[in-house]
Amino acid sequence: MIILKIFILLGIFVISTFLGITISKKYSTRVKELKEFQRALNMFEEKIKFTYEPIPDVFFEISQNTSINISKIFEEASYNMKMMSAGLAWEKAIDESNTKLTKDDKEVIKGLAKMLGKTDLDGQVSEIRLVQKFLETKLNDAELEKNKNEKLYKTLGATVGLAIVIILI
Amino acid sequence: MDIVKIIGIGFIAVIIIIILKQYRPEFAIYVSILAGILILLIAINSISGIVNLLQDIANRTNVNSEFLKILIKITGIAILTEFAVSICKDSGETAVASKIDIGGKVIIISMSIPIIKALLETVLKILP
Amino acid sequence: MGIDLLFKIAAIGILVAVLYQVLVRAGREDQAMMTTLAGLIIVLSMVIKEVSGLFDAVRTMFNL
Asked: Which residues in C lie closer than 8 A to residue B31 (C-beta atoms)?
């Protein structure tokens, strides 16, 4: 009976700590993903400037060179482009992705959809630059939020768990 | 060894209070209340022996047992009021403490009316 | 009942202090206030039981 009690209390503590870490991870993952996205857009810009490959191929190559969540977006988009217009495919890929990016971030990234495959090279490049600039501010935001909230949620999870355990003892 | 228990509880409570006072003074009061309760509970356990002894002596010397009962009740009230008063004083509320004190005193006097009455009657009897 | 309740209150007090610090650092003063209040109420509910226990003991001992 006592062993069961200790086990349950330990479980509560571990779960709440884990919950706190998971919530705090959300913030650092968002920063990471935004950085990764910037890198991907840089690559995209270089590629369409110098190689003149069709966009699906470019996207596929980018997806090979980025990390998991972001690469999935690009892969999905390059796959979707075989069936629909580039802009729609891009939006759909972003909507279906499960990243930790916020809605605002996604709106900014979706801004790319308007020009994909529609304007000429210079237009595309300037559009990418614009999105990059927006992403920069978003990245700063995310960085600030991360500094503020990451430690908070980690401590909060552990202490709340401890408090529940102490009250239940 | 009840005294060891009492001293241990007292010391532990003091240490906890000193630690807690820096961060959250509100919790320190709870700890002091609880320590008082624990110590009083331990002390009360051994009071029954004293009460029995008193009753025994009263029976042997033909003292009115009603009086003894009142006396014991008054002791209980005094302990409880003292407990409450010291907690209030600890928290810095001397006004409330003095009011509890007054209440306890009034109740004790009102309970001891039969004793006072008996005393006065004996005095009257002795007087010519 | 006993000395472990004393330690429990001490632990809750320290935890509430830590929570308060963390929440204030993160700029959530109102939530910090709420946690303090919740801690106080929880401890109060534990102490009240003991107080009534003491009163019962005194009452039976001195036949009040």
From this structure: 6, 9-10, 13
